[in-house]
Hints:
Distance between the termini: 17 Å
Order of helices and strands: EHHEEHEEEHEHEEHHHHE
CATH topology of the largest domain: Alpha-Beta Plaits
Number of strands: 10
Largest sheet: 8 strands, mixed
Number of domains: 2
Amino acid sequence: MLFSDIRGFTAMSEKLDPKALTALLNSFLTPMTDVLFKREATIDKYIGDAIMAFWKAPLDIAAHPRKACLAALDMVGAVERLNRETGSDIRIGIGLNTGPACVGNLGSNQRFSYSAIGDSVNLASRVESLTKFYGLSIAVTEHTHKEATDLAFLEADRVRVVGRTEPVALYALLGDADLSATDAFKAHRLDHEAFWSDYAGGRFGAAVDSLARARSHGRAGLEKLYDLYAERLAVLIEGPVPDGWDGTFTAQSK
Length: 254
C-alpha cells in the first residue's frame, strides 16, 4: 500500500485561486499517475492532493513491494523534474507498508468503488503522516523493507503508531540498488547502524558520538531525522536508562 501527500498543501491552496489550484493539481497528479501505472500499481483514489495506491489486486504482481519502493523513488524524481520545469516548490511525503488487506467493491448499494481496507492499509497511512515528523520523503515499514533489501535504506525509528499496540520498524528509503552498492552509502549505513545500536541499546553517551559520525556523511534528506535524535539524546543522557528501553517511540498524533 502507498499513500502520498503534498507537504504544506493547505497553505499553498490558500494563495491560489480555484483555476490555478486545479492546474497545479493536474500538473502534479498526471506525472504521479504515469509513474504508478508504469510500476503496475492500482490507483485507489485521489483525495485532493493525496494519492492512495496498492499492488497485487486485481492482478497478481510479482515482487510488488520492491515495485512499490521503486514507484516511490520515481515519484520523488518526477516531482523534482516538475519543480525544475515550472519553478514550483512542491515537496511530497510517501508512506509504504506491505500486508494483507480486504480488496474489492466497497460502499453502498447506490455507490461503490474498488478499494482496499484493513490494518495494513491504516498503517501505511500512519507511516505517510510520520514522514512529516521525521522530515523524510519516503518511509517504509519493516514489512516492505524486508522484501527489497537491495535498495538504499536506513532505519529511521522503531515506532508505535496511534491506534496500534505493536511497534514497527520504520526505514528511510533514499535511493535505488545502484546507490546502495556504492562505497559511500555502505560507509554511511555502517555508521548509521552503529548509531542505532548505541541508541536502542541505551548507550546514550556513545550514541552522541556515533550520531555525529553518521551525520558527517552529509546525505541530503536526513537533516531533520538526525536533529530529532540529537534532541532526544540531550534529554536521555541526563538520566538513567528508562526501564524496558529498546528505542521504541510512541507517536502521539496521526
